[in-house]
Amino acid sequence: TMKVSEQIDALRTLAANPVKYLVVPRFLALCIMLPLLTVYADFVGIIGGYVIGVYKLLIGSTIYWKMTFDTLAFKDLFTGLFKSFIFAVIICIVSCYEGFNAEGGAEGVGKATTRSVVISFILIIAADCLFTALFYFIFP
What we know:
The chain is an all-alpha fold and about 140 residues long. It is built from 5 helices and no strands.
């Protein structure tokens, strides 16, 4: 809505670079927080697996932890963090581009948001396929 309400033009009038003022903080926030959220989700997944494995499937606690740490490789953690960083870059670039080019009032903002989500989703799927192939099939 900043584009529609001409706030971006006001920033330019004040000699403030809108990319530096609006895009850079969002870019840094996404690039820092998405990998951290990935680590958090991995941790929650492991704890959730423990709860289900030990209390529902009656697997021994030590067996669960041993099998988890035996199968967990550094490459898997690195790949997940690297891909989440790339996804953050994709989300930021697409979202900011669509936001800067939104026109037509509230309806235009809604269309730009939808376009941003769809394009980000498609690019993330493509990047995920590419990096999974690179990390696990081409350079195993």
